[in-house]
Amino acid sequence: MSFPPSQKTIASTEEITQIDTHNNHDCVITNFQPATIKILLIEDNSGDARLVRKLLAEATISKCRLTHVERLSEALQHLKEDNFDVILLDLSLPGGHELDNVIQLHAIAPNVPLVVLTGFDDEALAIRSVREGAQDYLVKGYMDSNLLVRAIRHAIERHQLLANLEQRTQELQARETNFRNVIATNMDGMIIIDSYGVVRFVNPATEALFNCKAEELLNKSFGFPVMAGETRDFCIIRQGRESAVVEMRVTETSWEGECAYLASIRDITEQKRAEESFRLNERAMAAASNGIVIVDPRQPDSPIIYCNPAFERMTGYSQDEVLGYNCRFLQGPDTDPTALAEIRCALHEERECRVILKNYRKDGTPFWNELAIAPVQDANGQLTHFIGVQSDITERKRAEEAVLRAKVAEAAKLALETEITERKQVEIALRESEERYRSVVDNVKEVIFQTNTAGIWTFLNPAWQDITGFTVEASIGKYFANYIHPSDRQHQIDLFQSLITEQQECYRQEVRYLNHNGSFRWIEVYARLTQDSEGNVIGTSGTLNDITKRKRAEEDIRSALEKAKELNELKSRFITITSHEFRTPLATILSSTELVRKYSHKLSEEKKLLHLERIQIAVKNMTQLLDDVLLIGKAEAGKLDFNPKPLALTQFCRDLVEEMQLTAGSQHAIAFVNQNCDTHIFCMDEKLLRHILGNLLSNAIKYSPAGGTILLELIYQQEAVIFHVRDEGIGIPEADQAKLFDLFHRASNVGTISGTGLGLAIVKKAVDFHGGKITIASKIGIGTTFTVKFPLNDRIKTND
């Protein structure tokens, strides 16, 4: 609780401070502040709420989150939905009387510290608030940012500290209760003796042992010297003059902060009596003619604690050699397991049994032992020992075995003859069956496989080597997934695991398997779960069928269908383009001939010649179109002739430029530039070269505006001949450049300019025949440059 300097500190705060001070050896004061302090403000006065927000904003608090509500019901709803570190409560909320809201909030959220805000400077009310669960009491008129933050932090810390103290107190009380319960319920007498030998505590078992009340023993001298770690037996006299023998064990402890001793006392009177009786019986058993052993089932492995002289004579072992050991040392590998199981069952059920065992003496010689076992119990019916009586019946067993051997030999002779006959028949049938199955497995075209649960090949038939090229011997013991294409591998591993984990019984998949030569073959895999006769998963088995030919056939069919589709599309485009290209010259021819036929008598010679020239040009265009179609057809069919002959490139280019200039007329200027090529002769197919350069120059003329300049450049280098055809035309969009050499493809910006889309396809085919390469560089509205490069190999080079 925080007050302004003029106020007093209430008693509750002082009491909490004293608890902290006096118990600092039990409580560790830590920083209880959370990283972000979540504050719930319950204030119906908006001005006071703004004041709290302002004070928190001015404070040096690192992080805080303020939730403001005006009614207690809203606050209760927020407390259900969120965890708050502190509650700031206005004491004067409407609907509540003085501390009613404090009591109600503390009852609903006892684990959230509560700070009361009020306008009343009333110390009595402050004390009552703290008693009802508040951690502090602040008067709004005296409150500043430091006071508010200090009150919030102290409230959180004090609340957490009180909670820790309460938890520690409960733990100590529970621990003390458990300790007292352990001692009180212990069957042995428990006595705590201080360093002066005075009894300070006894448990109920001690009262029963001494047959008196605790008050009669407490604060009395124990009467025996005690020493930590000591164990001793002594006799005590109970009330009523009855004596008893007890065993005492002493350990050092503390009692009420001082050194003390804890004496654990056990009544061993009956045990001592039993030991005395046992010694009497032992002398009687020593004179018996049968071997007698006594074992203690209460000790681990039921060791021998006694054997008589007859047992020593019968087995050859001395008493010192067998005491402390289980009787198993008499057994051998051929001791009857059924008889041993009967002994174990009798020991477990604490009953008598009689069995015949083949045992072995110390020197290794066998003897037949008729063993009778009987349990020994104390006065309370509790098992304490087992007694075994042994009789050597070796001679009797030999006589019985001799008779039995004679009978068995006769029966064995007959059984052996029958078995030999039947076994031969079975072997013949198995051999024939094995040969049939092996023949099937070895000759089947499919791979038959088996794996273990780790995916390791355990069986593969010869078809494995026929299909993959890997030998069966080299593959057995390898991981199956190592032979699968990397792209298919993980999926196949997942399917294999689904079988091994019994998520499915079988699956069928088409997978690529590795071939010995590094290639991959398509395999249809059928795999299923394999289990043994008891239903345990032991691996997988199945078949691998080579479907590579089928997959290739399917791929060929798909390719053929795609090719047919492409041809159909080309056919449609060809028909569309050629019909359009033929229609224009045919229309020209038809109109010109119609005019000449009807009006020849009215036409001048000049007009007639003009119409004849138009007919001639139209026929030439049609002929050129047909030549292009035939040339493409030959190229696609692989029947295009390639006849390279010595050719003077420089003169060839000059002649071609002159021809193209005549076609272009005065609207375009075609220039020719020659670099280092005047005297060189090259072997080239003149007809194909004319197609290449003619089509490129023709396109440059067609797609260039009037007045544009077209350049043909010839360059000779040491290893190549290069042609550049440059224009200043409309350019080719970048999106069209990749398909520019495809049949019938035309750029998207040609507009109404006529064309078939065959020219550049012909150019590409002709360049390929020369082993050359054609590239394009173009910008829209600036122009295009085609570059044709022929390497100077044996087909191109010739003498200078």
From TrEMBL:
* Catalysed reactions, as listed in the record: ATP + protein L-histidine = ADP + protein N-phospho-L-histidine
Q: How does the record classify its membrane topology? A: Multi-pass membrane protein
Q: Which UniProt keywords are present, listed alphabetically?
A: ATP-binding, Kinase, Membrane, Nucleotide-binding, Phosphoprotein, Transferase, Transmembrane, Transmembrane helix, Two-component regulatory system
Tell me which residues make up the Response regulatory domain. Answer: 38-155
What sequence ranges are listed for the domain Histidine kinase? Answer: 577-794
Question: Transmembrane region positions?
Answer: none
SUPFAM superfamilies noted in UniProt: ATPase domain of HSP90 chaperone/DNA topoisomerase II/histidine kinase (SSF55874), CheY-like (SSF52172), Homodimeric domain of signal transducing histidine kinase (SSF47384), PYP-like sensor domain (PAS domain) (SSF55785)
Q: Which GO terms describe its cellular component?
A: membrane
* Matches recorded under PANTHER family: SENSOR HISTIDINE KINASE GLRK (PTHR42878:SF7), TWO-COMPONENT HISTIDINE KINASE (PTHR42878)
Q: Indicate what this protein is called per its UniProt record.
A: histidine kinase
Taxonomic classification, please? Answer: Bacteria, Bacillati, Cyanobacteriota, Cyanophyceae, Oscillatoriophycideae
